[in-house]
Amino acid sequence: MKQTPVVYATNTSGKRLLWIARPELPADVYQSRATHCTVHGDSLYVLLQSDTQASQSLSQTLLRVVKLNASLGTVQLQKDVEVPASYSVWVDKGATRFVWNGNRLVINGNSRLTSDHARLQNFTVRLNSDLEPKGRKP
Fold this sequence. Notes:
The chain is mainly β. It contains no helices and ten strands. Strands 3-4-5-6 form a four-stranded antiparallel beta sheet, with no helix packed on it. Strands 7, 8, 9 and 10 form a four-stranded antiparallel beta sheet that branches. A hairpin with a 5-residue loop joins strand 5 (61-69) and strand 6. The chain starts with 6 loop residues before the first strand and ends in an 11-residue tail after the last strand.
C-alpha cells in the first residue's frame, strides 16, 4: 500500500482539528511519509521522507522539507534536501534530528554513499527559513 503524507494541527488540548494538509508527492517518488515537524515564526516546517520504488531493496530514500502556514496549513514553499555524494538518505526518529538552532533549520541524518552503497555516513544540513542551504544565495 502506497503511503502519502498527511499533516494536521489541533488546538492545544488536541480535541479540535484546526486543519489538514496533504503535501503533494514529488513526481519521482513512489510513496512518502511526514516524519518530523518544527515551528519557526508563523510557519510549520515538515520533513518528508520519500521512497523512489515499492521494493525496499531497490529504492532510494529522498528528503524534502515543506514549509506551511502554521495557522492555515497552506503550503508556502517546498524544496528537496540535497546531501552531496549520497545515494539514499534518511532521518531517524527523535526531536533533536529536525530542529531550529538560531536562524537555521538543522537536519541530522544518515546516508548511503553514491560511491559505495554499503557504506553509511552521518550528515548535517542547515537551511534558512527559505529552505536554502547555509551560505547559498538564491
